[in-house]
Amino acid sequence: MSLLRKLEVEHSDASYSEMFLMASISKLPIYGRPLNISFQTKDLLPVPIEKRTWKHRNFIAFWIADSFNVNTWMIASSMIQAGLSWWQAWICVWIGYGVASPFLVMNARPGSMQHITFPVVARTSFGLYGSLWCTFNRGVMACIWYGVQASIGGTCMFVMLRAVWPGINNIPNGLPESAGITTKEMLAFFLFWFISLPAIWFPIHRIYHHPIAGLVFFVWCIVKAKGVGPIIRQPGKLHGSELGWGMVTNLMSSISNMATLITNAPDFASRSHSPSAALWPQFFSIPLTFSIVSFIGIIVSSSSQTIYGEAIWSPVQLLNMFLDDSPSHATRFGVWFISFAFIIAQIGTNISANSISAGCDLTSLFPRFINIRRGGYVAAIVGYCILPWKLLLSSNGFTSYLSAYSVFLSSIAGVMITEYFLIRKGHYRVADLYTTRKEGWYWYTYGFNFSTGRQVPIAATRIYEMSFFTGFGVSMLVYLLLNWAFPVPGAARTFEEVDVSGWEDSRSSHDEKSDRDSEVENQDPFKSA
Fold this sequence. Notes:
It is a multi-pass membrane protein. The chain has 529 residues and is an all-alpha fold. Helices cover 66% and strands 2% of the residues.
């Protein structure tokens, strides 16, 4: 019992239910009377003003960090392997991420306006307790993806170590074949996993990343191949209806890659300095950054065909071949520099897309013991324990599963966007997100909104076959119809983004009063005399 006490985060005495709902502000005057919210689960509260530091440039830097990784590098390459020409594949990337960005911006809007994270925003649609189902699903995905990205980062670490210490390639393997990994690969994975841990410690609003080395790799390959290679001139292998459906399929895969980030978009938008900071920078930077990185991947792979006689689609494999082909000091330094940049990029992606999301979700599920920082470390531990390199051995099945599960999350996003823009039309009662008052907007039926419970599974059962749009559309349409038949409290006729509970004003007044009281208490009586 004493051990559990020591593991708890800072909080006042409260039941688990109260800890889940409440936060760290004491007796705010809401609705003309004090509202007792004295339980210190600070990460569930609206982000304090002093931490709303993300401006336009921060969101642009965030998406540069998230886009610059091995997965994005190979997006267009996989499309070319499927039979598209390079420009057809690049169009799919542009359109796919261009379509995904409005959905993400719309779902981020409540976060940028009210400065609350995804687990709290989900309460508006699914109910105070029904939202646990959403946060659990998103938390599971974040932990799995953390492990997968760490496994890819381990391959980058191996290349970097090999550039510095070529003898690592000769380490004998002491692991059985059933392990799915060799000793030297396990060493590299563990080192990547270990050096990622300090990055989780830094606050969300201090994440920055600028991937300069990717451009160096890009130029190096063009110079080495004396041109951009033959893939640029290679025609597509698909024609007619096959080409049309091939482009649709690959376009949808780009959108599916963003489904998890669309769902938890409020996590990042809650740190925005102003609503506009989370709007236009994300709207334009998402398709731009992902398209640029995928274009670099296309050119590098095309150049590799000139150099080695075959297209090398994986940048990590290509760097390994550079070391095999010409292990000079200059080559080893170049490979070290680029692989180091990939390691930083993978860490940035894991923190921004997975660690933060898992931290927010697990904070909502276990508020007595977990805050955002601890949640990030839980994701790291779970990501290691699931043996992610084994998941990647059967890449086709695993990718299909992740795509289906990610698109399943889009039905949750469909409900959340419909709730904000079409049902309540921007009207919020932030105070009701932290109390079980029966007359509260988000209490519904004992904390569950059964309208969402009826339609999300219906969309999910058909979502894999009928794509992101159908899943999103089904959840949106059914939720609209159910709310027309069974209106919810707070449904508005006109659109206006406002918190009718007056939470922000009450909080500001409360903070000012607390500061004045503190000044009076701390006055030196002898000095005043």
